[in-house]
Amino acid sequence: QRMLKLIRDIRDTNQVNILLSSHLLRDVEESCEEILILKDGCVAVYCDLEAERKSNRKFLEMETYGNNLVFGEAVARLGCEYALVGEKRIKVILQDGVEVADLYKIAAKNELQIRRLNFKRDSLEDIFLKAMEDK
Where are the chain's structural domains? Predict the structure, then answer.
C-alpha cells in the first residue's frame, strides 16, 4: 500500500512519467492513467484508462420481463443503441441527455418490468483478457 501511495503521489505531481510493469492488474488500474499491454513482444493494446472509464460509463445491462423488442425500439428512438441478449436481457448504451429514469418511463409505458439493471464497463482484467485472446 505504501508503494502504491508513493506511485500516486509522484504521478500527481505531473512532473515525471512513471513506467510501471506489473501483473497486479488492480494496482495498475488504481495508479495508472494509461496502459500498454504486450503480447509476444508486440503491443497488443494501448488504452487511456480515464477515457475508457468515461466512454463506458453509460453502458447498461438489464434483466427484464416483457417485450424487449418493443422496448428496444422505443429506446432506439431516443438515440440509444441496444442489443437483445436472449428473451430476458437487453444491453443499452445511453446517449447524452438520456437518463435511467427515461428507461423506466418507457418500460412502464410498454408494460415491461426491469428486474435488474447494472452499469457495466470493461475492467483492466477484461481488457487484458481480450488482448490475450486476439491474434
Answer: 2-53+123-133, 57-119
Mean pLDDT of the chain: 87
Environment class of 50 (CB within 10 Å of its CB; exposed 0-12, middle 13-18, buried 19+): exposed
Comparing CA positions, the residue from 101, 109, 94, 10 lying closest to residue 58 is 94
- Residues 72 and 125: their CA atoms lie apart, in Å, by 30
Residue 109 is predicted with a pLDDT of 96
CATH no. for 57-119:
3.30.70
Distance from C-alpha of 12 to C-alpha of 17, rounded to nearest angstrom: 10
Instruction: Report pLDDT digits (tens) over 31-82.
Output: 888 888 888 999 998 988 878 776 656 789 999 999 999 999 999 999 998 9
